[in-house]
Amino acid sequence: GINMYFCDSLQGGVNDEITLTAYITIALLEIPLPVTHSVVRNALFCLEMAAGEKENHVYTKALMAYAFALAGKEEKRKALLASLEREAVKKDGSVHWQRPGKEPEVALPYYHSRAPSAEVEMTSYVLLAHLTTQPAPSQQELSFAALIAKWISAQQNPNGGFSSTQ
């Protein structure tokens, strides 16, 4: 058996353990391990506790939303996506997420204006969370997902890749 202790320090608004737990949960569910597996159960329990916190970073929320989507936890997925939508940057007919307190982008020539990898990454997780649902995403979700996909595709570099590490 695997013994893992998740989320040792939920206090103090530290998102690192939660972010790491969300990453691990996603990896386990993508294997796929069943939601009933004790490691997955513990991790999801931890994420459910963390999802109630007020201080979660946008990046962490995006990961948690996708983890809950994979786990089939529909209410938690929807609640996080609703909270994320309130923080979305909506412009030019597209939607994306950026780090809080980030300077507004200066109007640079196109080839300078691609987003940092963390933003491509978190926006991609939000997209996955919108599309990962049973039985299927609603029409409303699909049209919102299309706006997210539009922003992501605009971040491609001339070689067709992204600056993201993931």
UniProtKB/TrEMBL annotation:
<dbReference type="GO" id="GO:0005615">
    <property type="term" value="C:extracellular space"/>
</dbReference>
<dbReference type="InterPro" id="IPR011626">
    <property type="entry name" value="Alpha-macroglobulin_TED"/>
</dbReference>
<dbReference type="InterPro" id="IPR050473">
    <property type="entry name" value="A2M/Complement_sys"/>
</dbReference>
<dbReference type="InterPro" id="IPR008930">
    <property type="entry name" value="Terpenoid_cyclase/PrenylTrfase"/>
</dbReference>
<feature type="domain" description="Alpha-macroglobulin-like TED">
    <location>
        <begin position="8"/>
        <end position="166"/>
    </location>
</feature>
<protein>
    <submittedName>
        <fullName>PZP protein</fullName>
    </submittedName>
</protein>
<dbReference type="Pfam" id="PF07678">
    <property type="entry name" value="TED_complement"/>
</dbReference>
